[in-house]
Amino acid sequence: MLPPPYRNEKKPRSLVTHLYLRFVLRRYLSLVGLVLFILAGGFYYIRDRYGGEPHDTHPPLVPTLTNILPPLYENYHNAELSLPQHHWEQSAPRKDEKFLFVAGHSRGCGWGNAMQELLLNAYMAYKAKRSFVFANYTWNSDGSKYSEYNGKKIPSLIPYSAIIQGPIVGGPFPPGDNTPLAVHRDYFDAVCPQKTTFIREDISEIITYKNSAKEITDGWHDKLANVAEPCVETSINSGQIYNFDVFGDPKAMLDIWPELSASPILTHFAWSPLIERAFDSNRALFLSATSAEPYLSHVSSSYPSAVRYPPINGLLAIHVRRGDFADHCEFLGAIGATYAAFNAFPTMPDQFVPARSGDEETDKAHARPHCYPTVAQIVHRVEELRRTGAGAGLRRVHVMTNGNREFAEELRAALLEAGQWPDGVSTSRDMVLEWEQKYVAQGVDMLVGQRAQMLIGNGFSTLTSNIVTMRMANGLPLESTRFW
Fold first, then answer.
1. Which of 348, 363, 300, 301 is nearest to 457 (CA)?
2. pLDDT in the model for residue 324
3. What is the distance between the terminal CA atoms of the chain, rounded to a whole angstrom?
């Protein structure tokens, strides 16, 4: 608000001062009116699979106003609480209700880390035939509405249904699958005032290979099979069931992949209507103008993921990390890190063997082109892979990046100078997004990467890892998934 007039001053205002204050007040009231109009929903509709108002296929765009706080996604949270499997009139679980909540789920980490853990937690509950209890994507769990990251405000919590849809967040399983539907944590807490709590070490201390996702999952399955209590959670203090050691181990996912990839957790995974609408609004960046492909908002949400998200022929998606990844790559090189678990399958055409020479600078230099390639190295790799069989027919590039606009423009110019891209080169910075979409935009890039004819990703990145997971689950050829 503007400060009040100088009421305690005895000296009367001059005419100039009076006119200036009146001018500022008018500008202030105009801005307030515009903000209220936006917050009232004047610029776009919100719709999700649980109901709500219909939306235009090409909704009007929200102007950039730097003084607006990040969205809190209340409509999505309310829709989650309104899921039909929630029986709020109850004070205890029904006889057919059994739940599993991983209270020590990840917090304060990027979406890539949170998503890979979410998939495994949901699969663990699925295999145990219990309702998976989902919470929020959590940056900060201290009760605050907003947090700060890199000097900017972000939501402390984002409902998962603002990013994904499907069985993980309470959607139906495919016909014939009678697994109990997922429920929201608030419902779990409401009907389960008394909970049976286990710690991670109950399983991790008795299995043979502590990073094996299958041994971990089977261990919890066997333990829960003998638990009659309906309300089960893991201790928040024992942390993640599938932790960073698991997702950083190249062997961790090998034995569980056949069953995980065939489960509805992946076969019926889908991006939220908010993410799909962003793809639809920006489809000119990814699809040719003559494409007859329907808008995702017109495709039934019951379709399997492989049908809903077919490959986009002619599209090359490349994932280029910048920003905080500069220091992280130096750290990964120094410790001799390998590619993330889902990026390290032995059938992948690109394998990375850390140097581990005993000299830290040598090890960093060995990893750097694979983790934080220069513009010249990126262009060289793109031109190299477009000459392969899997790269035949590529006509456009989409650069998925957290780099600033200057970097994105530099890379675009270099790619265009080096090769012929008849349909152009786009970047994450070119996408026009609604207010709520801006804070989950990584999901839009992941959807694009999942569908591209060819992907060149960062083998150390969990965001790339999740894209690779979806590409493999949807049956895209392994030779079309490459790394720097």
1. 348
2. 86
3. 50
